[in-house]
Design brief:
There is one protein chain. This protein has helices spanning 5-8, 12-33, 35-44, 65-70, 104-120, 139-151, 163-172, 182-194, 199-202, 217-227, 340-349, 382-400; strands at residues 84-90, 98-103, 128-131, 154-156, 177-180, 207-210, 230-237, 242-248, 255-257, 262-267, 281-287, 298-304, 306-307, 319-320, 325-326, 331-333, 336-338, 353-362, 366-373, 405-409, 424-426. It is α/β, with parallel strands linked by helices and 430 residues long. The protein has a nine-stranded mixed β-sheet with strand order 4-3-5-6-7-8-9-14-13, sandwiched between helices. A four-stranded antiparallel β-sheet has the order 10-11-12-15. Strands 20-19-18-21 form a four-stranded mixed β-sheet. Helix 2 crosses helix 3. It is globular and about 70 Å long. It binds zinc ion (ZN). Zinc ion binds at residues 249, 251, 256, 311, 313, 315.
């Protein structure tokens, strides 16, 4: 199913021509209205009229999350404040957030891309959408809310948490698709199990859009099993409208990134140079249609790679592999670079292991991985535990190159969260 067949299947040369026109317009816009970019262009000796092809993108400056904070609150605004229609922020761990402005056209484009994404995965106006993302300054809930309304779905703005109420709404209004974080999805699956609800028998759920935190294929399977539905992977970030930047189609193999609105680069995070086609690296995005706050070559810090083969669904917009981590989240343990996602991948692929885990770093670079056992299937023999423990430690050593201490815990012993779950605790005295 297509929301806008013409643009979604536009042939590559026409798509690239459209991208070039939009890039040139964006560069002219920021050169005229944003002093930050004007100064960067002067430093690099580049003028808007020097952009003749998409390859000239590499002459333009990168924009980082630090640049957004340094220009807080309105330094990167490219329209008069009167023409801004909505403000979102992206939370930071410390200090000021990033302020992100939307014009009327930006608000509309964001909803349009979500509508396109939802329909791509089979959503129709008959669907009932229960949105379990946090409403508020964060883009996650509002942008998908308006996207689903555009499709014509009944939208239930439930927000996250309060699982009793979520269940009541899902039962009473026959919710068919939900949008939530992977950690809340796992929590909700456990909640249903504890309350004797069999989602396949008792609920109308068909699909879940899971995003906001990276997660592995193994977690995805656990969510599908636990909630009795199909999980569609999605990607977005507040700096680029929020959700709806890239979404899985019904083939469920990689996420189509909407290239009429964003230009993709994959770079080596250390050197800033492009990687070879299909190789993993940091995703860098340039907005092509944003009016209020266009961003050039934004360093997302997300690690992924491009699927170079065309998709069977007929869409020409290229696909990204699942995000495997953030270059910011990278841990350095005993000199080895480790992404928490690598650990999750090993744990979630192991039978006998439950849904919750915690990576704990202590003392002088000691890594302990605490992981809950699965609810069912464990007979309680010590030999069985010891065997599982050593299997896991060995598989982890193969994946992350160091051998962590593995602690198996009874189901339900680690703290659970209805929001974002903290997976790494770093108490190292280094
Ligand atoms: Zn496809």
């Amino acid at each position: 199913m297509f929301w806008d067949r013409k643009i979604e299947t536009l042939d590559r040369p026409a798509l690239e021509q459209l991208q070039l026109q939009r890039l040139q317009k964006t560069v002219r816009r920021v050169a005229a209205h944003v002093p930050f970019y004007r100064e960067k262009f002067a430093e690099l000796g580049v003028r808007p009229r020097d952009i003749h092809s998409l390859d000239d993108l590499r002459r333009l400056p990168f924009t980082t999350s630090a640049d957004l904070r340094a220009n807080y609150p309105t330094g990167l605004l490219a329209v008069p404040l009167d023409d801004a229609l909505r403000l979102h922020t992206s939370s930071g761990t410390t200090g000021k957030p990033k302020a992100l402005f939307f014009s009327r056209q930006d608000v509309d484009n964001a909803a349009e891309l979500c509508a396109r994404s939802f329909v791509m995965s089979g959503v129709t106006k008959k669907d009932v959408f229960q949105n379990m993302m946090t409403y508020g300054m964060f883009t996650g809930a509002l942008v998908t809310h308006y996207g689903a309304e555009k499709v014509g779905c009944l939208v239930i703005p439930a927000g996250p948490g309060n699982s009793e109420r979520q269940l009541m709404l899902m039962q009473d209004f026959r919710t068919t698709f939900i949008h939530l974080t992977p950690s809340y999805a796992l929590y909700l699956a456990t909640f249903l199990e504890k309350h004797g609800v069999n989602p396949r028998r008792d609920l109308a759920l068909r699909k879940a859009f899971v995003g906001a935190e990276p997660y592995t294929e193994g977690t995805c399977r656990k969510i599908e099993h636990g909630l009795g539905l199909d999980v569609y992977n999605s990607y977005g970030l507040s700096e680029m409208n929020g959700p709806g930047v890239a979404f899985e189609c019904e083939q469920k193999h990689g996420m189509h990134l909407w290239e009429d609105h964003f230009l993709i680069e994959i770079i080596n995070p250390a050197t800033g140079e492009p990687v070879k086609a299909g190789e993993p690296g940091e995703l860098v995005l340039t907005t092509l249609t944003r009016e209020a706050m266009p961003l050039l070559r934004y360093r997302t810090r997300d690690i992924t790679s491009i699927i170079t083969k065309p998709c069977r669904c007929g869409r020409t917009h290229r696909r990204l592999h699942r995000i495997t981590g953030r270059s910011d989240d990278m841990l350095i343990v005993r000199g080895v670079n480790i992404y928490p996602q690598q650990i999750e991948r090993v744990l979630m692929a192991q039978s006998g292991v439950g849904r919750n885990y915690l990576i704990s770093l202590e003392g002088l670079d000691e890594m302990t991985i605490k992981v809950e056992l699965a609810e069912a299937g464990f007979e309680g023999q010590v030999e069985q535990l010891v065997k599982l423990q050593s299997q896991l430690a060995e598989k982890l050593r193969t994946e992350i190159l160091i051998k962590p201490l593995v602690q198996l815990l009874p189901p339900g012993s680690l703290p659970v969260s209805e929001g974002k779950t903290k997976r790494v605790i770093d108490n190292r005295k280094l």
